Amino acid sequence: MGEWVIGAFINLFGSIAINFGTNLLKLGHDERERHSILGSEGANGKTELKPIIYFQTWRIGLLFFALGNCLNFLSFGYAAQSLLAALGSIQFVSNIAFSYFVLNKMVTVKVMVATAFIVLGNIFLVAFGNHQSPVYTPEQLAEKYSNITFLLYCLILVLVVTLHQYLYRRGELLLTVPGHDLKSYWHMLLPFSYAVVSGAVGSCSVLFAKSLSNLLRLSMSSGYKLHSWFMYSMLLLFLSTAGFWMARLNEGLSLFDAILIVPMFQIAWTFFSICTGFVYFQEFQVFDALRTTMFILGMISVFIGISLLAPDESKGGEDKESSLVSVTSSSMSTDVDRYTILGLALSSFRLKLDARF
């Protein structure tokens, strides 16, 4: 059995554990709210919320969440970044199962179709993705960061981020103009630009996490000492980009409807994570025309499935309450009680690695 299979299975179990923990964390916060309401009714007044750590459901959820993060971090030492980044979408499938069996939510035909797209896409990604994940020395990793192809990709990434940040700021300014009605396309362009900037920068944390995981695997196999300038540089860059990603997730959820922004976050994060792995680790070198076509079709299938999981806004608030789309690991680590299990999807895809660590 190839090492990529080990990495894929570790990542799969890690993603499921993170999703399970995420939902338990949310249930813990719901239990806390109910306890506060019951207490206020009995005391005929407002009762102060108990610290969340007192609730067992939340503590168990935190344990599963931490375990899943550790498994995902370990998996990046054994399989290609592009493969594992795409596999993060399996959280949506596990969340549907959790919602049906634990929360007794209805599984609609639309949800089943979305699940089929995600599962089919993941089958394509696993079957035709990169199955190699060599161990690199710090010198080799540092050399890859100075590769002309990677530097060109970074330049393109900067231009993409700059363009979409400009579009977002432009839209914000138009919103502040009294009596000015925004054209309809701005209502989609604003969250899209916000998600692209977030995903482009946040996905870099996956690259730094894989570099750290590679160094950890190297130390276990050859006795390499982790105390080096390169390791500390990767750690600092990882914490910076992961922190940026989590902050943008929290802010984005407060600025836009979760029904709209969460699928955009997930798709942008996944797309840029795959592209970064392709360019930096040159994972595209093992792809021929057939594998490239099938891998792209797998990505499209996953993205369609994620988009279909967003409830239909036209049906009103009731559908939003019955949605089976959950918060991903990416958005859970800092402000769980702001997200409902119903309206959200990462992270993380999530972080899929970013906010997961």
Automatic annotation (TrEMBL):
Membrane topology note: Multi-pass membrane protein
InterPro entries: EmrE-like (IPR037185), Mg_trans_NIPA (IPR008521)
Keyword list, A-Z: Cell membrane, Endosome, Ion transport, Magnesium, Membrane, Transmembrane, Transmembrane helix, Transport
UniProt GO cellular component terms: early endosome; plasma membrane
Transmembrane segments: 6-25, 60-78, 110-128, 148-168, 189-209, 229-247, 259-281, 293-310
Record's subcellular location: Cell membrane; Early endosome; Membrane
Gene Ontology terms for molecular function: magnesium ion transmembrane transporter activity
Chief location of this protein within or outside the cell: membrane
Subunit structure: Homodimer.
Function field: Acts as a Mg(2+) transporter. Can also transport other divalent cations such as Fe(2+), Sr(2+), Ba(2+), Mn(2+) and Co(2+) but to a much less extent than Mg(2+).
Family that this chain belongs to: Belongs to the NIPA (TC 2.A.7) family.
Name of the protein in question: Probable magnesium transporter
Organism, as annotated: Escallonia rubra
